[in-house]
Write a structure and sequence with these properties.
The protein is α/β, with parallel strands linked by helices. 39% of the residues lie in helices and 16% in strands. Strands 2-8-7-6-5-3-4 form a 7-stranded mixed β-sheet, with helices on both faces. Strands 9-10-13-12 form a 4-stranded antiparallel β-sheet. The structure holds pyridoxal-5'-phosphate. The site of pyridoxal-5'-phosphate (PLP) has 13 residues, from helix 5.
Length: 361
């Protein structure tokens, strides 16, 4: 066929989501495997979210509320912004995609940390713009180096806070200095998919920088701490002027009925969120202590996952862990040939992980 696919689309490496658990189990002849690969909440969804969604099932013959009225209001109230500042997305992934479609053009540049979230590269290329990757420094985002890459063509800068896959934060002081160097026509996008887990006192308080007249967008999601990854619901906090432009291209029913109901239920379940954070923090302490006793190096984190230096080919370790029914993420394709990334699971799952790792290394 003579498809004439745009060059920028052909330059994209497809995102590899990994095989479903059931498929891996069949392939490797294993059962009861433990998945610690995608930074999900191991507790399952909040019971309040489940009950809100069960209620909403009866209304599924109707189209969703295209404005997300109740969810948007609830978020605005919680975050102390106006409802006009909130855009809902089919996951925060979709907001990334809408932002780049609207604001990037051919020849524009978008600066991003590397390694970080793989979607930035994809959405920037999709818009025909050029990704400019800036290496991390000591596993953290190097704001000074990123600011140095700004040119007249820079239209967007992505910051991941805490960063995936390294779990590092941006400090408030560093961010303030950074913003002073960024020209007004450059949008700063702070992706805070894991912000709920962060404990460091000096971490950036992104909402404190939010202003109607500043090109700054904050992305958050229900996929991680709120345990609703399969539902696909996230949101952006942005100046009303930016949100109004995004609304021109937003599909009217991008946040579906169940997603809106589930997200509202999750926001109302404070106890579930607290339990989730406590589990992650307690288990992180337990896992890093045990790894230390084994003489295995792991890195501090402000998220619900962390990096481990396995001291050998991480792809091989990934495969050997998989054979023992434990799924982790190899960091080879992220540029860390001897690191794996492990999400915090339930205590029993973490015990299994530690047992398998002890055998493997
Ligand atoms: C998981 C993740 C997201 C969230 O994606 P959703 O589309 O909301 O599920 C966004 N950014 C980063 C860095 C992530 O790790």
């Amino acid at each position: 066929m003579d498809l004439r696919v745009r060059d920028n689309i052909l330059s994209i490496t497809p995102y590899s989501p990994g095989k479903p658990l059931e498929e891996l189990e069949r392939e490797y002849g294993i059962r009861d495997s433990v998945k610690l690969a995608s930074n999900e909440n191991p507790l399952g969804p909040s019971p309040k979210a489940v009950s809100a969604m069960t209620q909403a099932l009866k209304g599924l013959h109707r189209y969703p509320d295209g404005s997300g009225y109740y969810l948007v209001r609830k978020l605005a109230e919680k975050l102390k912004v106006s409802p006009e500042n909130i855009i809902l997305g089919n996951g925060s992934d979709e907001i990334l995609s809408m932002l780049t479609q609207v604001f990037l053009d051919r020849g524009d540049e978008a600066i991003m940390p590397e390694p970080s979230f793989l979607m930035y590269d994809i959405v920037v290329r999709c818009a025909g713009a050029k990704p400019i990757c800036v290496p991390l420094k000591d596993l953290a985002i190097d704001l000074a180096a990123m600011a140095k890459q700004v040119t007249d063509n820079t239209r967007m800068i992505f910051l991941t806070h805490p960063n995936n896959p390294t779990g590092t934060i941006i400090t408030d002081g560093d961010f303030e200095r950074f913003m002073a160097d960024i020209p007004a026509q450059t949008m700063v996008v702070i992706d805070e998919a894991y912000i709920e887990f962060a404990r460091a006192a000096n971490r950036l308080d992104s909402l404190a920088y939010f202003r109607e007249d500043r090109s700054l967008t904050i992305l958050r999601t229900f996929s991680k701490a709120y345990g609703l990854a399969g539902l696909r619901i996230g949101y952006g906090i942005m100046p009303g002027e930016i949100a109004a432009v995004i609304n021109r291209i937003r599909m009217p029913f991008n946040a579906n009925t169940l997603a809106q109901a589930g997200a509202i239920g999750a926001l109302e379940d404070r106890a579930y969120l607290e339990q989730s954070l406590r589990l992650v923090h307690d288990e992180l302490d337990y896992m890093s202590k045990t790894l230390g006793e084994l003489g295995v190096r792991c890195y501090p984190t402000q998220a619900n996952f962390f990096l481990i230096d396995v001291g050998r080919d991480a792809d091989v370790v990934f495969d050997q862990m998989l054979r023992r029914g434990v799924i982790v993420r190899s960091m080879v394709s992220y540029g860390y040939p001897e690191y794996i990334r492990v999400s915090v699971g339930l205590h029993e799952e973490n015990v299994r992980f530690l047992g398998a790792l002890r055998e493997v290394i």
